[in-house]
Amino acid sequence: MTTTEVKPEPKAAKPVTQLGDRIFAGSAKGAGIAILVVLGGVAAFLLVEAFPAFTAPEEELPGGIAVYVAPLIFGTLLSAVIALVVATPLAVAVALFISHYAPRRLAQGLSYIVDLLAAVPSIVYGLWGAWTLAPLSVPLSIWLTDYLGWIPLFAGPPSTTGRTMLVVGLVLAVMILPIITAVAREVFLQTPSLHEEAALALGATRWEMIRMAVLPFGRSGIISGAMLGLGRALGETMAVAMILSVSGAVTVNLVSSENPATIAANIALQFPEASGITVNVLIASGLVLFVITLLVNMLARYIVERRRDFSGAN
């Protein structure tokens, strides 16, 4: 009776790593750790400095920190949502025009122009909004109040200066437009060409091809770009501080002179003259903004990771 000898399988050779690969891997790892350290340091600073505001006696902080921060949270979210509602459809339309409609030379030049909007300083947007857009918005505010005043958003009375939450939302929309456009454009360009050609071969028009192949493929990119733009709008400071006429009221009226403040603008305006417990209160409001922005960015990353394996072929 013969036995068959089983030869052991040869061991796989370990991949040889070059010095450049090890340096790059170490640099990338170090950069990631550094970001976490900086983020943790910022969070620790905000927590330590904001703690006295949360434990302050009632006579030092009437109503408590919640009463102080609640209107600011409302104003921050209201202005950011207005910007998101205005900017997202326009950004998707611009991205589709660049990726699927415009000639190559025009698309390249338009891409540069849209990306250039992201490089414009916030103070320039603030000047444009306060000195140009605000006066031009007064007739629009009057028209909205006259014909749509039954809607709480346009109840009026309209502001005579135009420095309203509506103008702030429009300026923020222009500011976040390049962010959403850039993300949506890159995602649309990655749509599998076989899917587009198959739709066209079946007799679909260009719009039908975009609706059936491009938009479903780029849905996660649109959402994540919108979330990133929302994060930018939430933290905007100078443009809002220069435009908005703040009264501290909590209202959804977008054309009135009574407007809620935002967290970032309130810190910028109040911090130079603040002292004592007021500084801790402002830092506590900054901590709230930090948490809100962190949650928005985490939601964007979750959406991207949730659909990262989606290639359009499944």
From TrEMBL:
Known InterPro entries for this protein? MetI-like, MetI-like_sf, Phosphate_PstC, Phosphate_Transport_Permease
Q: Where in the cell is it found?
A: Cell membrane
- The ABC transmembrane type-1 domain covers 73-300
**Which keywords does the record carry?**
Cell membrane, Membrane, Phosphate transport, Transmembrane, Transmembrane helix, Transport
Q: How the protein sits in the membrane?
A: Multi-pass membrane protein
The keyword Transport appears for this protein: yes
Give one Pfam family, short name only: BPD_transp_1
Q: Which residues cross the membrane?
A: 31-53, 65-98, 110-128, 134-154, 166-189, 209-230, 237-257, 277-300
Family label: Belongs to the binding-protein-dependent transport system permease family. CysTW subfamily.
Record function comment = Part of the binding-protein-dependent transport system for phosphate; probably responsible for the translocation of the substrate across the membrane.
Q: What is the name attached to this protein's record? A: Phosphate transport system permease protein
Q: Which organism is it from?
A: Pseudonocardia parietis
